[in-house]
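note to self: dont lose this again. the chain is below, predicted strucutre after it. 385 aa total, dont forget to put it in the shared folder this time
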Amino acid sequence: MAAINAMEKKLAEYKCDTNEAICLKLVRFPEDLEDDSTTFHPEYSHQLFGDDEVAFGYKGLQIQLFCSAGNLTTLLNVKYTSKVTDTIDCVEPDDVESKIREIIPARSCSNTEDFVSLLEKEAKFKPFGSLLHTYSVHNEEAGEDITYQIYKAEMSCPGFKEYHERLQTFLMWFIETASFIDVDDERWDYFLIFEKYNKDGETLFATVGYMTVYNYYVYPDKTRPRVSQMLILPPFQGEGHGAQLLEAIHRYYLTAPKVLDITAEDPSESYIKLRDFVHAKLCQSLPSFSPDQLIQGFSHKMVEEVQEKLKINKKHARRVYEILRLHNTDMSDLEHAKAYSLEIKRRLVGPYKALHSPCYLHDVMWNSLGFSSLGPRKTKGNLPR
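---
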């Protein structure tokens, strides 16, 4: 038993947390390769390494997955201080390199010298698609404003399909339930953010983040763009790029008369907060959401105006109304605070009131007997109410 426990303890030394072992980097200059301050790590690695997010068989494991900042040319290196087979016979380590290669493009560098030589071609890289929006963010460390641009790309753009294969790899590390999309489906729209920066008098571009949107058909002649994936890469998070991207996309679809509204697929809590911020910002400029209208309560006029002018549906309009009304309510004023609380209470208890109303109970009883409010129920050919 003691021998077994000793062996288990020895084998445990060869387990590595893959979220720590995987080192990601966006490389602009050759010196970035040795600069640990530019390295970041995944939030998730379970899709490749299991729910425990552990790789077995190595000490000091480091999986270097470096990308050029613009074109995302990929370098993969696997390093470790020792391997289990060096000390223990008949025990095989995990093939971590093969697991990583399952999700990265086949044409990836495994040689640092080749990767560095490709960095010299970054000056030729230009964003894909058409420019939608340009904005600036003040960088405190650099003491200057940095320019960013948002583009809408098509899969038909030369080189974009290969670029997208490299870009989507990041989804696996930062979205818990991420999956790769079918790029042959023409209903997908692609939106990208790039940073503009200078090197030796040349203008270069670095990838900041992106979003994919699927255009669902809505009978009879409308579409409903649904945000599927959205990612701002870690070096750029917390600078407001997500809000800029989402607002730019809203403004893009506003020009399409066949778009009914804009939704999201299984939104995360952080995305919902971002959407609330963008919706509230957009709705503040509408007459129906002015402070004097907000205090009068949620109205049909609000629903109509946000649907027509901002492609926001009723459910989200109600949410924005509550946010903006709270923003414009002096909660230290007991009368105003009570009025706002009652407004929220009415929305929360409304469905339960309807559920137990005499009319609802009457319909339930009547329907159980084979009747509807319009007369006896037909057994065939009756459309649902």
